[in-house]
């Protein structure tokens, strides 16, 4: 069974604490999930490291977490940092 | 920015400038009435500050340059370094008018200064010169970096944990980098990411390793990280496989002594990286004993790959080698060399002239004598080749004084006089170290800190004088400071404490000051970075004594100390005066001999005689050197003079002038006072060379007591 | 959505020229003439970066930095201080207060643009 999580708005240091809480609460449910990133307007290092930790945490719990529908902002960061959206760092 | 926008902005600037300048004049006049008004000083400063800032935006360099100086003056008033005076106000008032006229010029479309404006400006700035307490040069306009060939750099970026909280987003810097080149490979360093529970969402954990291809200079890449440098670890090194390029560049560079300069010029390292490595070097030097090599630090901090450092070290060594070969050559005055060659030419002719005469023929002796004379002259002339002016050695201290002053935070002017005085090259080389010690000592302990000098009403800038001159066949070198002078009580106290002097001993000032030359004597409680490292004045005196020289100290409390070194001109040869006592022969340096007289018969039993109404104390060589046999009926007195003191050497016979080649005495005789060396006479016998200084000092005062 | 920058300087011409340069590069710009004015401007807006002069009447730049750092929605906002080469101590004070970036006066518009671009892209 797969769940869907939609993350939207800013994913930056200014709101990092709230976004962290959302991600963690979602992981607690313990189901595999597609994370929809199409609504992310802004992604900075704080946001990026939140996503990376969430994915690693999920893997440790045996859950697959995949990032979907990246917005322009998310896409650009992943390309620049040479990271794959749906897997470990290249 | 469109032209319309710019014109619009320029209008704003002109309106703003006019308002500010109106206030400036009023503020200045008000300041004259109420010089302590901090508010109005602030406002005046801000006027020039704002004008300078705005003018810079429009590229109005003439306005920037002028307002910068006025701003600097007002800043010192604001900081309380400069008092408001009528003179200052009258110097500043026309400056406001001048800025106004330049602003009106801009309003009229002139974006550069006219010639008359430049002339006026220079005149006004000259009038401000006395008020400029510290120079703060305008930051130079940076030239655009040359677009170099493309290079690949390996950037390792570990951002400080607070970066995000400070508003510094590492990804932003990457985006900016991407405008300067290509991020060819990026590895996101996630190793510092903690477990989800421990993660602080506002702390920065990520780092990046980037292979960056760009034509930008290394310093420009470094500049990207200006704002995060303090808290982050930023390393920029030539990527693998690029080291060879730098090795080639380094090998092609002109000779350089300094490793840092070589590396910076090669483009592999920036000035900032060198500065940081030097700082690490200093810190380690402070904590440990050894000074780690700069190259090692650069490799260890991964600033630059080892092969590049090795190439630079190789280059440095090569430079040093070619330099040390240079020091084995000696500069010789052309006319002296010409004279020597002339003499050799004459000698060849004289020699052949001897060859055509048979020994019993008339003219043979004359030709032989000519050869002898020429040989003598050739030797003299050859020795003069070794004489060099001492100035080069003294001027080396300019750098020392500057560096030491920076370390000690003192202001000292170095004045060098008498640099043209000549001495033997070997001596010049060997006097360097003792002089260095004296110079450092004077800067460290002699010249007082600024505050002390100010309190005593002395000029803030101390003065250190190096002076050299010839005096009676010696060269005298003085190291004089205008500092605090030697402290008699402190020296005496220390000597008593160290058991060098019995408490209560009555000593003359001179004897007290002489104590500083005793082994193990140092009055400095805290060992400073410069002097006071165990190498004391005793070593200085010993070094000078080895050169057959003497050192004395003259001091006035509060006014300064002078160390006076007296050295022979050359180590190799002296003009001697040969005297005989019994079977022994002695040489008295001729420059110390003033006259010779016969020992008056009535003075035979006494220890002095009257010479033209003055008492002349005797030194009987026969007694001093314990020579057996009875003196002849007629004895002679050689009158010698040393440091203004005269004495008579009582000898048997006067044997005349003699060019004396000095042979040093062996270590066995190193304790022998009064003898400075030996020489071999024409007949193969040995003659001792008298050291007049100690001879007079040790014997005369005692003899005089008996008078 | 382009990023908004607040320029705080008592000189109208500095505000104007910097605004022109930044707008030309694609940023939104708002301006304030001193620290108090700046705090009013921050209220109710989303500002991504603040550029502030040090010397200003009413509230100077360093005080402003301290105040901004107290505002929950701006405590992580990057701040560029405008210092002069003779004010090394002011630069230190500003950094200690939390303004980690700086541009030295007098500057060319391109230098300001470079500093801004390091911190945020439009």
Automatic annotation (TrEMBL), chain A:
- Record-annotated STAS domain positions: 5-90
List the Pfam families hit by this protein, alphabetically: STAS_2 (PF13466)
Could you tell me which species this protein originates from?
Dactylosporangium siamense
Protein name per UniProt: Sulfate transporter
Domain of life, source organism: Bacteria
> Could you read off the lineage of the organism from its UniProt record?
Bacteria, Bacillati, Actinomycetota, Actinomycetes, Micromonosporales
Q: Which InterPro entries match?
A: MlaB-like_STAS, MlaB_ABC_Transporter, STAS_dom, STAS_dom_sf
TrEMBL record, chain B:
Q: Which positions fall inside the HPt domain?
A: 2-106
Instruction: Spell out which residues are annotated as carrying Phosphohistidine.
Output: 49
Print the keywords alphabetically. Chemotaxis, Kinase, Nucleotide-binding, Phosphoprotein, Transferase, Two-component regulatory system
Q: Which organism is it from?
A: Dactylosporangium siamense
| Domain CheW-like stretches | 563-701
Q: Record's Gene Ontology CC terms?
A: cytoplasm; plasma membrane
Q: What is its main location?
A: membrane
Q: Which SMART domains match?
A: CheW (SM00260), H-kinase_dim (SM01231), HATPase_c (SM00387), HPT (SM00073)
The protein's location, in the record's own words, is: Cell membrane
The coiled-coil segments of this chain are: none
| Keyword Lyase (UniProt) | no
Q: What is its EC number?
A: 2.7.13.3
Q: Does the keyword Phosphoprotein apply?
A: yes
Q: Which reaction does it catalyse?
A: ATP + protein L-histidine = ADP + protein N-phospho-L-histidine
Q: What is this protein called?
A: Chemotaxis protein CheA
Q: Which GO terms describe its biological process?
A: chemotaxis
> Which principal EC class is assigned to this enzyme?
transferase
Superkingdom of the source species: Bacteria
For the Histidine kinase domain, which residue ranges apply?
A: 293-571
Biological function:
Involved in the transmission of sensory signals from the chemoreceptors to the flagellar motors. CheA is autophosphorylated; it can transfer its phosphate group to either CheB or CheY.
Q: Name one GO molecular function term.
A: phosphorelay sensor kinase activity
InterPro entries, per this entry?
Bact_Chemotaxis_CheA, CheA-like_dim, CheW-like_dom_sf, CheW-lke_dom, HATPase_C_sf, HATPase_dom, His_kinase_dom, HisK_dim/P_sf
From TrEMBL, chain C:
Instruction: Enumerate the InterPro entries for this protein.
Output: Bact_response_regulator, CheY-like_superfamily, Sig_transdc_resp-reg_receiver
Q: Ligase as a keyword?
A: no
Its keywords, alphabetically, are: Phosphoprotein
**Residue ranges annotated for the Response regulatory domain, each copy included:** 4-120
Swiss-Prot/TrEMBL GO biological process terms: phosphorelay signal transduction system
Q: Which residues carry this modification: 4-aspartylphosphate?
A: 53
From the UniProt annotation, give the residues forming the signal peptide: none
Q: What's a Pfam family in this record?
A: Response_reg
Q: Could you tell me what this protein is called?
A: Response regulator
- Native source organism of the sequence: Dactylosporangium siamense
């Amino acid at each position: 069974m797969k769940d869907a999580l939609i993350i939207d708005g800013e994913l930056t240091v200014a709101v990092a604490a709230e976004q962290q809480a959302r991600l963690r609460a979602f992981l607690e449910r313990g189901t595999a999930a597609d994370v929809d990133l199409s609504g992310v307007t802004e992604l900075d290092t704080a946001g990026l490291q939140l996503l990376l930790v969430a994915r690693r945490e999920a893997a440790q719990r045996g859950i697959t977490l995949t990032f979907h529908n990246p917005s322009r902002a998310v896409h650009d960061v992943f390309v620049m940092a040479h990271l794959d959206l749906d897997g470990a760092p290249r | 920015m469109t032209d319309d926008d710019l014109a619009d902005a320029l209008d704003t600037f002109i309106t703003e400038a006019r308002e500010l300048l109106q206030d400036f004049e009023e503020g200045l006049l008000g300041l004259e009435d109420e010089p302590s008004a901090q508010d109005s000083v602030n406002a005046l400063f801000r006027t020039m500050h704002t004008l300078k800032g705005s003018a810079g935006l429009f590229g109005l360099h003439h306005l920037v340059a002028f307002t910068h100086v006025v701003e600097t003056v007002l800043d010192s008033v604001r900081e309380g370094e400069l008092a408001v005076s009528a003179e200052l106000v009258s110097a500043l008032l026309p400056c406001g008018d001048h800025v106004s006229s330049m602003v009106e010029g801009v309003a009229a479309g002139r974006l550069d200064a006219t010639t008359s404006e430049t002339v006026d400006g220079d005149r006004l700035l000259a009038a401000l010169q006395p008020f400029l307490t510290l120079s703060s040069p305008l930051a130079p306009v940076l030239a655009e970096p040359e677009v170099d060939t493309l290079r690949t750099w390996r950037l390792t970026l570990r951002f400080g944990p607070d970066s995000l909280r400070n508003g510094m987003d590492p990804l932003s810097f990457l985006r900016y980098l991407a405008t300067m080149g290509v991020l060819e490979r990026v590895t996101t360093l996630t190793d510092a990411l903690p477990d989800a529970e421990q993660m602080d969402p506002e702390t920065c954990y990520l780092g990046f390793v980037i292979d960056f291809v760009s034509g930008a200079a290394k310093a420009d890449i470094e500049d990207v990280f200006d704002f995060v440098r303090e808290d982050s670890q930023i390393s920029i090194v030539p990527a693998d496989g690029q080291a060879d390029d730098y090795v080639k560049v380094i090998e092609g560079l002109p000779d350089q002594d300094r490793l840092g300069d070589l590396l910076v010029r090669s483009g592999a390292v920036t000035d900032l990286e060198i500065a940081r490595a030097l700082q690490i070097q200093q810190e380690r030097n402070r904590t440990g004993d050894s000074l780690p090599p700069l190259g090692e630090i650069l490799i260890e901090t991964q600033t630059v790959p080892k092969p590049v450092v090795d190439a630079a070290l190789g280059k440095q060594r090569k430079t040093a080698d070619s330099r040390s070969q240079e020091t084995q050559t000696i500069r010789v005055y052309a006319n002296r060399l010409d004279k020597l060659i002339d003499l050799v030419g004459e000698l060849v002719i004289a020699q052949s002239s001897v060859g055509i005469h048979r020994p019993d023929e008339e003219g043979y002796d004359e030709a032989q004598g000519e050869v002898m004379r020429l040989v003598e002259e050739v030797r003299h002339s050859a020795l003069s080749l070794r004489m060099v002016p001492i100035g080069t050695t003294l001027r080396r201290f300019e750098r020392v004084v500057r560096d030491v002053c920076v370390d000690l935070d003192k202001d000292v002017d170095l004045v060098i006089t008498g640099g043209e005085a000549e001495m033997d090259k070997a001596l010049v080389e060997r006097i360097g170290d003792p002089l260095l010690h004296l110079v450092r000592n004077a800067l460290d302990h002699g010249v007082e800190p600024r505050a002390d000098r100010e309190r005593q009403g002395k000029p803030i800038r101390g003065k250190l004088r190096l002076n050299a001159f010839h005096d009676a066949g010696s060269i005298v070198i003085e190291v004089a400071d205008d500092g605090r002078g030697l402290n008699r009580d402190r020296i005496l106290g220390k000597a008593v404490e160290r058991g060098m002097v019995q408490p209560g001993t009555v000593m003359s000032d001179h004897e007290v000051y002489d104590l500083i030359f005793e082994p193990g004597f140092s009055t400095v409680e805290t060992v400073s970075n410069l002097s006071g490292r165990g190498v004391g004045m005793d070593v200085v005196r010993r070094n000078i004594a080895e050169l057959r020289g003497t050192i004395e100290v003259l001091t006035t409390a509060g006014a300064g100390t002078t160390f006076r070194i007296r050295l022979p001109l050359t180590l190799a040869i002296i003009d001697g005066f040969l005297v005989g006592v019994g079977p022994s022969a002695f040489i008295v340096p001729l420059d110390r001999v003033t006259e010779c007289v016969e020992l008056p018969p009535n003075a035979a039993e006494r220890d002095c005689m009257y010479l033209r109404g003055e008492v002349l104390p005797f030194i009987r060589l026969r007694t001093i050197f314990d020579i057996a046999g009875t003196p002849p009926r007629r004895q002679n007195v050689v009158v010698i003079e040393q440091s203004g003191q005269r004495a008579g050497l009582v000898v048997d016979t006067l044997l005349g002038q003699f060019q004396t080649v000095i042979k040093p005495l062996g270590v066995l005789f190193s304790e022998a006072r009064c003898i400075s060396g030996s020489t071999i006479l024409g007949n193969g016998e040995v003659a001792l060379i008298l050291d007049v200084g100690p001879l007079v000092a040790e014997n005369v005062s005692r003899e005089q007591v008996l008078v | 959505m382009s990023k908004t920058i607040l320029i705080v300087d008592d000189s109208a011409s500095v505000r104007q020229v910097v605004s022109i340069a930044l707008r030309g590069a694609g940023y939104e710009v708002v301006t304030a003439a001193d620290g108090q004015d700046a705090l009013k401007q921050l209220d109710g807006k989303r500002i991504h970066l603040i550029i502030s002069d040090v010397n200003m009447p009413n509230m100077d730049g360093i005080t402003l930095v301290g105040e901004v750092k107290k505002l929950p929605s701006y405590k992580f906002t990057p701040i560029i201080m405008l210092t002069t080469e003779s004010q090394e101590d002011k630069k230190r004070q500003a950094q200690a207060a939390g303004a980690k970036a700086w541009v030295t006066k007098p500057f060319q518009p391109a230098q300001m643009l470079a500093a801004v671009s390091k911190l945020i892209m439009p």
